[in-house]
Amino acid sequence: MTFKPAHLLVVLLATALPAMAQNLAVVNGKAIPSSRVDAMVKQLASQGQQDSPQLRAMVKQELINREVLMQEAEKSGLASNAEVKNQLEIARQSLLIRALMIDYVKKNPVSDAEVQAEYDKAKAQAGDKEYHAYHILVEKEDDAKAIILKLKAGAKFEELAKQSKDTGSAAKGGDLDWATPATFVPAFSQAMTALQKGQFTETPVKTEFGFHIIKLDDVRTAKFPTLEEVKPQIVDGLQQQKVQAYQQALVKKAKVQ
């Protein structure tokens, strides 16, 4: 059986098309696979960009530009440069490690039971009450005692709070807004929760920040977020804990000389 030239051209085109379809372009004889477009579009989509013909056209041109520049860099011998080699190895390690962590998280997902346990733990630590407190923070105990004497003599807490070392609350008369006891260091929380509404501490409260005079304005039932409201943050936190434990376990069993 013989083919006429026209028939031969049709056959050659038919066999070449599938291979060509797998390539985005061929730059100076080197093919750029179409799969690279999908990979870059996927990466951009994860950063919030919308997959569209316009985005794909932009990615196609970017990949062509990169290939042209890569070929020039290789012709210049930069691929053999020691510093470039080190940076490429660091980048390769980063990509592989990231892929390893993603794979580990997929194979070891956070369970609903773990999320519930973490939520219950956080809720218990937060307590069932919120406190609206004011405070004045000073460096020396004697200064704190002097302020307490002024308060007992009738001075306004909000006015004296202007001298507080805690500049953020000082500008608001010492107001710390509503918060649970767990928000504060233990010594502060213990002194605050022991107060009655309207009372202030009659002895300075020492913490690592200095000496406090605390005034309790009010107490109310704590408004703790629902599980559904905080579930994404809990899952993220537990995933990070799992990944850190996995990393530490691998390093621990590795033979390092």
From TrEMBL:
This protein's UniProt keywords: Isomerase, Rotamase, Signal
Top EC class for this record: isomerase
Catalytic activity: [protein]-peptidylproline (omega=180) = [protein]-peptidylproline (omega=0)
EC number per UniProt: 5.2.1.8
SUPFAM superfamilies noted in UniProt: FKBP-like, Triger factor/SurA peptide-binding domain-like
InterPro entries: PPIase_dom_sf, PPIase_PpiC, PrsA_foldase, Trigger_fact/SurA_dom_sf
GO molecular function, a single term: isomerase activity
Residue stretches making up the PpiC domain: 128-218
Signal peptide, first to last residue: 1-21
PANTHER family assigned to the protein according to its UniProt record, in alphabetical order: PEPTIDYL-PROLYL CIS-TRANS ISOMERASE HP_0175-RELATED, PEPTIDYLPROLYL ISOMERASE
Similarity annotation: Belongs to the PpiC/parvulin rotamase family.
Stated name of the protein: peptidylprolyl isomerase
Organism: Undibacterium aquatile
